[in-house]
Amino acid sequence: MKRMTTRAALALTTFLAAGSALAETVTIGHFGNPTPMQVARAEGKFDAATGWDIEWRKFGSGSEVIAAMASGDIKLAELGSSPLAIATSQGVELEMFMLAQVLGSAESLIARDGSEIETLEDLAGKRVAVPVGSTAHFSLMGALDHAGIEASDLTLLNMPPDQIAAAWEQGAIDAAFIWQPVQNQILETGTRLATSAETAEWGFPTFDAWVVSAEFAAEDAEAVAAFAKTMDEANAAYLADPAAWTADSAPVQSIAAETGADAQQVPTILEGFTFVPLSEQLGETWLGSAHETMRDTAEFLNEAGRIDQVAEDYSGFVNTEIGSAATQ
């Protein structure tokens, strides 16, 4: 075999460097949840599959994601079902193309020890924190509706997760509806009153979705499909053998390193989510009826005075072509 000449080697190096320089930089928004996608993220699988130079940006709430999507600052992001309904009702040009995870016990309403809150009805007159506009906020409103309590009957405090954790330690709040890993942190000195799984049974289902700018989805459809495929494969790795994802396993250690979550708690956190295979998401239960879920959520938020209008049709905010291409 002939050795490569110095000139040829230099040419190849220049070509590869140019290719790297031409890679499109794409900023992707996420919430930093301790989920299987963090393993693929750590291993650079999303960059390799899409050809993008990905910058991951962590957001504290769905309202922050909506603002970034509306301004064009980011093209693709994780977004909860409640803020998704808010964004689409406001006409933000984005498309839901897959579920990230269905929320169960991963989001819960926790009462602080010593707050004298033992039931949902006891929330009246108390200080309850939640990131306003989030899925947790929607679930809280559902819990209040189920208990026959008006939001005006309590002091509702709008706080991102880190502020909830700090306020909890200071005794400045009596209860909070929040997600992981803050949920586990405050549970050490609190009691769970309700989960998103329960509020879903009461008629208020929630999930996290992956959304993309409609324009970007049309311009870079193959790469977005590759992103979806990689996400699905990451979830499939967990679904294949959840019991193997123990605190000392490589995947859980990777998740802990990426998110800052306690590795001992990650297996329990994962159990609080439901990861739906992309092939199943394409059916009527999920993406097939997502536009109806958006409208139902928007109508509730409108009646609660959280949004000013409800769109007539939300079907244009759901893209099933990306998932179909990803599962081929």
Walkthrough of the structure:
The chain is an alpha/beta fold. It has 16 helices and eleven strands. The protein has two domains: 6-103 and 207-326, D-Maltodextrin-Binding Protein, domain 2, CATH 3.40.190; 107-201, D-Maltodextrin-Binding Protein, domain 2 (3-Layer(aba) Sandwich). The chain has helices at 6-21, 37-42, 45-50, 62-71, 81-89, 135-147, 161-170, 182-187, 196-201, 214-219, 221-239, 250-259, 266-271, 278-281, 290-303, 321-326, and strands at 25-30, 53-58, 76-80, 94-103, 107-112, 127-130, 155-158, 175-179, 190-195, 207-213, 273-274. Strand 6, helix 6 and strand 7 form a beta-alpha-beta unit.
Provide a concise account of the structure shown:
The chain is α/β, with parallel strands linked by helices and 328 residues long.
Strand content: 15-25%
User: Mean pLDDT, rounded to whole units?
Assistant: 91
The largest sheet is: 6 strands, mixed
Q: Calculate Rg over CA atoms.
A: 21 Å
Helix content: 40-55%
CATH topology of the largest domain: D-Maltodextrin-Binding Protein, domain 2
Number of helices: 16
Encode the helix/strand succession as letters.
HEHHEHEHEEEHEHEHEHEHHHHEHHH
Name the descriptors:
6-stranded mixed β-sheet; Solute-binding_3/MltF_N; alpha/beta; globular; 5-stranded mixed β-sheet; signal; 16 helices; SsuA/THI5; D-Maltodextrin-Binding Protein, domain 2; single chain; 328 residues; 19% strand; Peri-bd_TauA; Taurine-binding periplasmic protein tauA
